[in-house]
Description:
alpha+beta; elongated; 2 domains; Threonyl-tRNA Synthetase, Chain A, domain 2; single chain
Amino acid sequence: MTKALYLDDAYLKEFDSNVTKVEGTSVWLDETAFYPTSGGQPHDTGIIKADKDYKVIEVRKQDGEILHTVDAEGLQLGPVSCVIDWERRYKLMRMHTSAHVLSQIIFNATDALCSGNELGVEKSRMDFSVPITKEQFLGFVEEANKIIDQDLPISWKFVPKEEAIKMGEAFRLMGKSHPDLDVLRMVSIGDFDIQADGGTHVKSTKLVGHLQLLKFENKGSKRKRIYWELTQA
């Protein structure tokens, strides 16, 4: 199984690894810091350096492994050097942390779990199955920015699943309970929020910047969708 380096160090920008399997433009490494699309967070991009530079254009999970798709055939088994597209990764880290803060604000006010999400480099969206108005969402965004301004530290630890569940509402994404995992990675934002999560985050809320509501969509009586962007931290 591929060792996921991003779980321990989201700020790892360059790393050495070994190509263990190649099928055309599909590449497997023994360990990787490239984040695979998961939990609403898009995959990383970057470069695998060997006899030449191979652009990593997609990363996904497949059968317990992490599969990298590159832009050309030719990679051979053996050692390689890898570089993350840091500008893209860092924007997604900020977005991901902002989503945690906002979802916790909304959960505290309504008990609503996120029913769908999609993080992006420039904007992100979340869906909630609860009758909330645009004015209420504007208030939630304002409250989220106040939490961000507190510069809360962000940390994570691995916890047995039974212990993690006792910590409270560990799952903010509706229907997501990680039944196939015995140990969960719990991400904490100070004492404000803790939840099971396998994505990448910044070190403190101050690095997020501020949320700005872009659009509110009414998808039905109990399904609301919001889009937001971030200002520079």
